[in-house]
## 1
Amino acid sequence: MRDAAIVGVGCTGFESVTPDISYKEMMFEAATRAYQDAGNISPRKDIDAFISVAEDYWEGFSIFDEFVPDQLGAVLRHLFTVSGDSIIGLATANMLIKTGHFDVVAVESHGKPSDILTLYDVVSFAMDPILNRPLGGHPFYVGGMEMNRFLCETGNSKEQCAMVVAKNKGNALANPFAAYGADTDVEDVLRSDPYFYPLNKLDISQPSDGGVVIVLASDEVAYKLNDNPIWLKGVGWICDTPSLETRCWSEAVYARMAADMAYKHAGINTPSKEVDFAEVDDLFSYKELQHMEALRLCGKGQAGTLTEEGVTSLDGYLPVNPSGGMLGMGWPLEASGMQRLLEVVLQLRGEAGSRQLSDVEVGVAQSWRGIPTATGAVAVLSNC
Amino acid sequence: MEMFGKKRVAVIGAGMTLFRRNLKETGKELAWEASSMALDQAGLELKDIQSVVMGTAPDAFDGVHMKGEYLADGAGSWRKPYSRVFVGGGTGVFTIDAGWWHVASGQFDTCLVVGEEKMSSCYPHPAYAFTTIFDPIYARPLGVTLIWIFALEMHRYMHVHGIKKEEIARVSVKNKRNALDHPCAQLGANITVEDVLNSEVMCWPVQRLDISPTSDGAAALILASEDVAKKLTDNPVWIDGVGWCIDSTFWTNRDLYFPQYVQGAAQMAYKMAGIKNPPKEIDVAEVYDPFDYKELHHMEGLMLARKGQAPKLTAEGVTQRDGDLPINPSGGLLGVGNPIAAAGTMKCCEIFWQLRGEAGKRQVKGDPRTGLAQAWGDLMQYGSVVIMRS
């Protein structure tokens, strides 16, 4: 059996607040667009399995799975929830198709953080309840500590991290789906309020609401549903360790191992040469640099220099986060990975509008589940 | 590069902890204990495990957000591909379905499947965690509880078929007696139908002895591809069918007398396993029984009994361990206990042990070749099924 392909994508766009639309309407809108994009398929007869990606505490429910089927057209059909990142949802859809028992699988992801009154307190509830949570404080201090260690060990600089912010928010200005596009420079970032040293306010992605649905199909049916299928060449996902005390604080081991797994399936040996562009997790500015190095898009300690030289800009030879990343589009919780994946699909299809990259064939999407996890996933996609 | 292919999947090891209220072990420790027992039975070490799937129910029990992440190292998932699937009470059986596709896809040769639950740390009672499973606008303001909605369902089931409480109580008597032979069981007991009928009324017609207990525990299974399984054991058990199905969120808008979603899950699994006549072809079944009426309700959903006929089979002794169609020889959730996700995985373990002839005093008569485990979840809405063959 050959690779599976993405034959449909649908997105609501991302906004800082969405009082006019419920999470169910958001899911319906993204799903309807994805089904239309996939040759106008009917979820009630054409989709063999549905995967929703959600976490109870983000949603304010116990057992959020209950509230998923109707708006996806999945009543009395084969739906389930993966409590994880949306690229892990994609990996799950891929496995279902590879069993040979499923031809078309839909993956739904959304985030509505504006509905959460105490977003960062919810994040605190993910900290180890015995060893870490009693220490108190805003949980993003973990990001500050990691940034410090990462910069110290790799020689990347705080200024280079600020350049990531300026680049991504600038890219987002050309992305109609993005919530936080802005004309920002390095000085703005360095002068913004210190939040979790060395993280400043503008180094941190802000929450955004939005949903993305994708439709994955086996190679047998892909061309029937879409003339321009985007092939999933490889996917990998890794949980490093939940333990803050024993993990590696400089390198994103989860991203390196997940990338190795995805590259192996995709037959990619030298990612820095074979990958045309990447969408990586940038919840914090330094994470883009750390993840570029973990994905072997450059050597250790080189990501900052490449950024400085403009290599990762839209007109560079290795554009990173042409969408604007999470710094530009916002942080839609578990949908963050799918937000990355969406841009890779649009770029590979040639549908990225004014931010379209030229001559791209292979793109990588990477996700991280955020504080306090060391879990991430990587997908390699190609239009040929 | 060709990395995938359709593969047959075997179960080669199983393990479980005691099921108890207020176990001292943390959730991570419970997950570890069950996983290492399963590894021991399979003759494998953690380094041989290529992927891990976790099943665990609401985070509200533990008060830990992203509970799957928190439990990961307990389930042996250090630096491994790891994911958590979650379909409410259906999670325990669904987790082995998820393990199946990890191996059947050809992506992994081995998968560790873990179901874990620690309910008793939820104060004052884990039932409070379930007050947040309801729609915040339509249902929560009514002060709905789980027992309240199951009382509605039980009543409807009894009413449509003219079933008496006495007929349903027999399930509780059978399962608690079966559990006396289970070394991990929490509530094995010799009780009578009278005891059930005289127990405290919780929410009519549900009485205390109709309900499974609050429990902590974990259960685990090792799955392997055909090639790996044949090297490790002469006695693999094959996963020949998996199925799952979800009904509408709006449980108030459908007739609760029959679980159509369980039927949908069963049809998917039977089709995959090539089963045309379930009551004849299934030799032993672990049917989800958090309440005694649910065993009957689910037997009908699984098409192991015709609609309204499951109480009759129970009265005739057909579902006893020495009957023609033994149901819940383990003692089920009513007897062994109900740590939600772990309870469903325990049912899969029991089918594995029964098909291997390793169930000791619980072994059903004859030589069972085909077994089924089923769980049910969400808002009276979800069915998950696995079919195994020796």
## 2
Amino acid sequence: MTGPVKRPADLLLALVGCLVIGFLLLPVVVVVPMSFNGAPLFEIIPSRPSLVQYERLFTSPEWFDVLWRSVRVAALAMAIATVTGTLAALGTMRLGTKSRSVVEALLISPQIVPSIVIAASAYYVFAMAGLIGSMAGIAIMHAVLAVPFVVILVLSRLESIDPALAQASASLGASPFHTFRLITVPQLRLAFVASGVLAFHVSFDEVVLALFLSGARTKTLPVKLWDSILFEVSPLLPAISTVVIVASVLIVVPTMWLQNRSGRAKGGRRKGSESTV
Amino acid sequence: MRRPSILTAALLALPLSFVGIFFVLPLLGAVATSFGLPQFSIDSYRRLVDVGVYRSVFAKTIRVAFETTAISLLLGYPTACFVASLRPRLRTMAVGLIALPFMLSVLVRNYVWMALLQDTGIINNWLRSWGLADQPIRLMYNELGVVIAMVNMLVPYIIFPVLSSLLAIPPDLRTASASLGAGRFETFLRVTLPLTGSGIAAGCLLTFIVALGFYITPAMLGGSGQMMIASLIAFNVREVLNWPFAFALATSLLASTIVLYYAYRVVAPRGVALKAA
Amino acid sequence: MGTSVTRRTMMRSVAAAAAAVAAPAIIRSPARAAEELVFVGFGGAYQEGQTKAFFEPFERETGIKIVQTTGVELAKLRAQVQSKNIEWDLISLPDRLRYTAQHDGLLEKLDYGRLDTRDLLPETVSDFCVGGITFATQLTYNKQALPAGEPGTWADFWDTAKFPGRRGLFNGPVNTLEFALLADGVPKDKLYPIDVPRAFKSLDKLKRDAVWWTQFPQAGQMLQSKEIAMTPWTRGPGLILDGQPIGVSFEGAAISYEGWVIPRGSRKFDAAMKFIAFALQPARQAELTKYVVFGPTNRKAFPLVDPKVAALLASAPENFKKGFLVSGDWWGPNLTKVTEQFTEWRLK
């Protein structure tokens, strides 16, 4: 919806939108200067500006290992969760109202039960299966935690899809699979990406389950962060956060740019609300 | 609707068994523990009801979750509208910016808010240097600071589903509505808003559930450590090892949330299917 | 032909002889290389100090390697013991957790036949746990925030007229109630059993000026930024306040300890006991004070400690007598109930 004339209502909306987005970004922006502090304090304007935290971070292999491990676990959790959650959403769509409510409730429960309860009660099962200390085990439980998000997002999107499109496609002779691939899937893209991001975040930031299910030699970043923050104030934390943010931007921006380019090559810029995301 | 078919079963098989083994099984163990298995006793539940403080804690947790969800909706909906109105390229960037803060861990965020909101923090310093306030405004160690920090984390959970449903609306609908003589506001009220119903509902559900599990932020920024359910549960699991009681708390939380969820399902509109003209 | 056979025979017998000599070493060394103890600690500078003072010297002396991990969680210990999947062999457990762990059957009884406890603080020696370090939670204040003078006692802490400024308090009853009682005039030796209603009445006076924190670094941060004028605080590896105008008072300090424990069912009981005996030695405990400000439990360690550091230690004689020892045995059974009452009080 890009009208040539900007009415006051549009400007107001833009103002509100930008303010809110700015508000959301505030912690991200503030954390960066905090990291350049030599003093062991959280100060927005460092009292002792220095690069010492980054030095510590990059010359210490243990932080890198831990960071990389967290990324791998989160990526695996994201993969498992998006596949599982999407299948669940697709299946749930087709259920009758009563069974659907039950299944939905079941699928979102992992987010309602505090993770400490899940951790304490799952430990036994995991110990039996020998999954304690394995990255896969942690990824699995993170995926369990993330599935509710995927289900809610994908399901909500599925519900908004115009069934007439699918009917039209079928009446034109496309098989159900083709219909799915060419009609449904593109419309799910935003929900997919959003739930993937949420799933990654759920895993990347998760402490409790990771704490319980990790072994002496396998640790994730949040667990390590929690350890060091227990007694000490360290701008190392903001430094790590800054590195993670910069890394995310460096990975995501080219990806989106590439996607935009391929989107355009596929048939020109589309007007209107159809998203290329 | 349709009767469940083989396809439905096939779709649901993987997700349900996944959630079944890794979540339901341990959860059943936890529920069993809360009932004192191998014996049977409802002592834990009786204590929950008898000792008044737990009711207050439940009430407070749910109230805070409601408040933050409402405020997040208020801020998130217009923002989603704004993002939906952007050109695809800008829109992608906006979505990226909204997702970016997910890379920040909860702990670091809280220290950022401390630095920002405390009496001697940046915001109060600015207010004072601009002569807008003589005394520092108490932004922290009260509910205001907690709400600010929580809303900051929760707004994206509203934005994604609402944006998703906004983008699903064919632009022709608005054109049609306008050509039938409706003003912009009326179009919004009678066309756009209802069609984003499922997005709003999904977003609110998501936000509410996530808000229920917050306890670190209220503890650090509001000084309300044990006054949230999740914190009490953690306390009982970790410090006093009273697992039957902790799991009774968790089961009650799950039960009350499921009840609220069913209420939401009855009241909230399911995705409005667009009928062919 | 004769020579080659002889040579071959000789080679064979040399080889055999060499094997015979080497065999014990070969057979022994895999077992030796496999001798490991898993220690779980609290990470950070503290654990680094433990590594230098205990783990590395121990490995040098005995060849037993300490595999380190972090994340001391009673719940995880319980899960391990219940599922018979013990991962940890050694923990330095704070007294506040010791009671619960012991009560829940999570610890092994220590073999005191192997330990020399003559010089140890008697209050820290018990069936399942032997004290290794002491630490104090003491009145800590920002000198710059208090132009009127420096507070010394908890009565001063409660006196917001004489010493204006907000007060940091730990968001939990442990130690908080004791400080409230001390401020109200209860003598140190009459603190336990705690008169809970009296403590809450005393706390009522401070409610308005109280800032409730949950994590130590938070309190340190707030103190430094003068958000609060004073707070009870534990000085540990937190060098955070070095070089800042921060003062402490040992008067009425809550002194507690961490002790060595062995999880029930650990297969490394012998090695763990060996370690504990090693770690209790005066020289070892004194060594730790070079890295973190935690007091030894072994009396004989003090002469070996740097006098400047000794002044900061909770168990240094001059400091120890000013404070009181927190009773883990009282808090153990009462923690739940009193925490409920505390939550109730805070919700009002």
## 3
Amino acid sequence: MGTLGKIVIIMISMVTVDNYPLSQFLGICPFLGVSTDLDSAKGMGIAVIFVMTLATIVTWPIQQLLDSIGIGYLQTVVFILIIAALVQFIEMFMKKNLPALYKSMGIYLPLITTNCAVLGVCISNIDEGYNYAESIAQAFGGGLGFWFALTIMAGVRSRLVDQTRIPKSFRGVPIVLTTAAILSLAFMGFSGMFS
Amino acid sequence: MAQTGKSKFQILTNGLIKENPVLVLVIGTCPTLATSTSVETGLGMGLAATAVLICSNIVISAQHKLIPDKVRIPCFITVIGGFVTIVQMLLQAFVPSLYSALGLYLPLIVVNCIILGRAEMFASKNSVVDSALDGIGMGLGFTLTLCIMGSIREILGSGTWLAGDWFGLAPGFKGIQLQSALGIPGMGIMTMVPGGFFVFACVMAAVHFFTRDKSKIRNSFGCDGCAMESVCSDDDKAREKGAA
């Protein structure tokens, strides 16, 4: 199989079989927190795709550098600092040069620092031994999958209005988690798509 | 100094039930769902995160006057990241089975909202002793939740309880084999992703049922409890309030 084919397969599997929130338990906090309406799901989704891809573009070469000087064990500290600095930098750049974009997407940026899917994708690129192109494909696909799951969830939740008869104890967070359980059950149907 | 009126004991027990980080504040959900497939991994994750939380709370509260306000989040993250690396290396050296069981979720302790959240909300405003107690309480609350969820998922999913070699301490220990004793087959789905979400929903609903009117229950994801609250813009907070 050619390189391009492998990249396409990685991207499709990151959206479906290995979907971050629904199959790997990564990025659950924003998945539950920002899925209240479709507009904020869109803003958060695009911001995550952007940061994830950029973080991978930066962290993958840095890991090679760390390995070459024999301090690969500093991976966790270095990666999280790079992500935090990167997010801060993007925010400052957008505020100054792209105020329209900042208004619609900027408010989600600080929350992304603590999104475990971003650090997760950077570390798993290294763990899986992917090359540079495959790593970027995995990051982009992961972000796309996150947006996909967030959009479905926001669509479902916009129907869960007050008139819906939900048992008292299940109101609020528990019913959202139950919805996520049913959604992830549906996503299990994708397994076996790639062997 | 919102917490000054509390006694040492109250600070310690606060995190166990009343402000349980996972079930009441709804933070740190990713590791809760991912590592509660059995009691052993849940306990391992809980204790690893507790160790990091206690150490980072102590260090951050000891030096919070030295850290300039503007760069405090990167400073906190560096301190937490340092302790996570230490725990990672110790586990890799002494408890390799747990190290491989936790996998990716071990380095991800660094972005666990509980730890950054406690640093921001408690350790940076209180004394060293109070922060250490808060770290112990919150950490044990997290561990307790993981053990409860781990028990439910292990019993229903694998038909065993407390199985595993307990980080190499009890080789040959098979746990309580409910499946062979009672003849009830395990439901594999409970150890998988949907089971995680569903058990978490049920445990949280049970807590709501028993503590209704007694403790503050979050019906939506507001800004309290979020580690990034202070860097969040005011517009966003107003929006969040409107939605809630």
## 4
Amino acid sequence: MRTKQDRSDELWKFWEAQEVTKTGRFFFLILVIAGVISIVRFFDWWFHPNHVASLPLFVILSLITWYGLLRLILIWINYLGIKKPKRAHAEDGLKVAIFTTSSPGEPLSMFDKTLEACANIIYPHTTYLLDDTQDPAFKEVAEKHGAVWLELVGLPGAKAGKVNKALQMIDEDFVLIMDPDHIPFPNFLDEVLGYFKDERVGFVQVAQTYYNQYRSFTARGAAEQTYTFYGPTMMGMYGYGTSVAIGANCTFRKKALDSIGGHGIGLAEDLITSIRLHAAGWKSVFNPVVVSRGLVPEDFGSFCKQQLKWSRGVFEILFSELPRLSKTLSLWQLISYFAISTYYLVGVTIFLYVAIPFMYFWGGWLPAKMDFGEFLVNGTPIIVIALLVYLYVQRWLSHPISERGLHWRGMVLKFATWPVFFLGALLAVVNVEIPYIPTAKKAVKGLSPYTRPLIFQVILFILTLGYVIYDRLYVASEGILILTSQKVWGMFAFAFVSIIMIIGGIYAAYESRDLEPEEPWKKIDLKKIKIRRKS
Amino acid sequence: MKRFVFVSAATVMGIALVLVFVFLGKQTSGPISGALDALGNKIIEVEQDYLLSQREPIRSKELAWFQPYRHNIELMKNPDTIFLGVYENNYLQSFDKIINLDESLKSTLPLIQIYTAWGDKDREKFPAIYAKTIYDLGSMPIITWEPWLNDFDREKHNLHAVADPNVAGMSTVARGDYDFYIEEWAHEIAAFEHNIFIRFGHEMNDPYRYPWGPQNNEPKDFVAAWQHVVNKFRELGVDNVIWIWAPQPAYLRYAEYYPGDEYVDWIGVGTLNYGTVASWSKWWTFKDIYGNYYDWLDMLDKPMMITEMGCLRVGGNREEWFRNALTDLPAKYPRLKAIILFNDDDDKTTLNKSLNWSIINDTSTCEVIRQTIKDTW
């Protein structure tokens, strides 16, 4: 497999997604129509009475498959709305604040770099450091870069509490809320403020991009999972009027935040804020430009922790926010937030998918009797078209040069974190908070506790293999041996696909053990950031 | 308007793209299923070699006496003993029921019958996996090969489009229209390597039952088709087939359907007693439906097989029926060299309802069969 070269040298340049042309849209529409027709044909083939082996299992298998295909169609429909906002120049004289928050335990040098980068932002603004470290060094570093230091201790929520308090203390009209690990480019505000000319615009989001993704398999995979989202996906959502805010680098109109009672508090704060703003009638803009880069989790444990937080938090949108806000959301917004807040059900579907072979080996239950050849002939067009679509929309990535690709690491990681998603969904349904899970340093042998279900799965697979071999050698009746040969080993091949993905996850965790903790921001030379536009 | 043109044009091209996939699908489905078949066979082969060959072959051992017979085709064409066999309809999932019948009869059955129709479907190809299973279980397969001609994709095989391909179908078989199918089977059977029975186009003189019958064909056309099939196999060097010609003697005119001594190895007759389950059936004894025709069939000088022996419980005593049929059978019918029990527990082929011929759980009948054979043969 070709190893992607480290494109770190390309990262610190301003970049924007390609324009959306009529021809681009046209070819894309052809693909989508062909894809939908193929899915309909597949539907027609799939639902045949003689395909059913065990009815309850067939229903489960159908639910998994058609849930996935429905989401695929939704993704395609979203892409059809793809839109890039016309360039809007920022008016002079706008009053802009930049918020960044600090908490105990965060590295001082990171703030040194970030605040310096904030100071380099061209458009006149005031940077505020919302600090609760109670460490005088932070006050010093803020003042060093001309930022206002606000001591805000004892407020709820990781970030939101401090943000809401600070909002009351400032008189600027626009607030860029930035994660401290993000390094903004000097032209950040120039790419964002122009869109607020439309009075109805409540927030403007730009692409969230990274600079440490080449450090590990986990980092690569985690980054790959986001590329399409911060390109064609959000561009589609913008086209339908439902692009969301991301806590790392979103710019808000203060009036908008005030109108909803401040920034949302919770595990998925940015999403909660988004939906409330949309429900209150505010519009959102997504500008697919690279104007800041931050950090993605580098070790498996941190990544899983983040995913657990999101998978638990995002369900709150479904259970708490959507029901009461549904009346004032537009149809597309409803669909979009519903789709986002149910995204992590993928943990449940992957679990069922993984369970099927084991149900066959231990219980003799087969869900379906489908001719594999027919399945290939009917299903392959969908896979091919889905792949073509996925690759085609990559022309609208925010930074194609480093983001294009098959993103297989992202897929492996996503599959291997199914236990995390499952747990998140489970906790959401019974409405329980996330329990404390120790960090990698405290875990056994340094392997993250999140690898336990994966190792268990591999062990179960090996045990099952042993059991089946034993059974076929000594126990099974002669009358069924050859007749079940293909089914048994076919099922193993099916299970093996899952195991390969899981092993990928275990590898990511294993690699994380030896990861040298580094401070990647130290190597960044802010003077080397290029912001010149190509055109 | 512009949007309408945009969407319509994209729709047309989208449909075109789908049609490309459909076309590719049709083209590749043959090769794909061929490749998957090969893969499937490889899996069976590899598992056999590395795993299953370690097993003790139980049933094979019980049939050790049968090995010299099934490996010697000339001996099987002129055997010196009577073979028992069975058709059991659940074989598609498992042969366990047949093993159960072995136990009920206290006799491991050397012949196992399966039915396959002609056509394009997977289940209409040579049943290699089942033949192999039967062989590994120590037995010899009998395949009843039914020349239904309506299940072929006529375009794909360059056949004339006709309303009913079965009408005058046998003459089209004779002239070579279905050689693509016959040759495929011949190759598969050659690859199987072991000897098998084929009962081709059975009950060809019954004008109601099967489409290759006299309602659609002249007797001479049936004979021509038969000869064509056998010749094809011989041309291709396939020499492990024993051909069973199986008329329905109850329909009296069957002599004219006889393909000739060089084309037939065994004579087969079905003896199913439907009892009084339908208006057209009575309680017919074994003598009624076979014994009375024995003398004429004997003149053909070939070993005979009861290809389907079964008795329903409606209208008479099943145990009696079997006892009468089997008592002194070798003495009464010296040419009768094989009896295949018809053990279908869900037969829907004759009446609208399901008929249960199975004797696996009928201990009294099994006892009668076992005892009668033991005492009188």
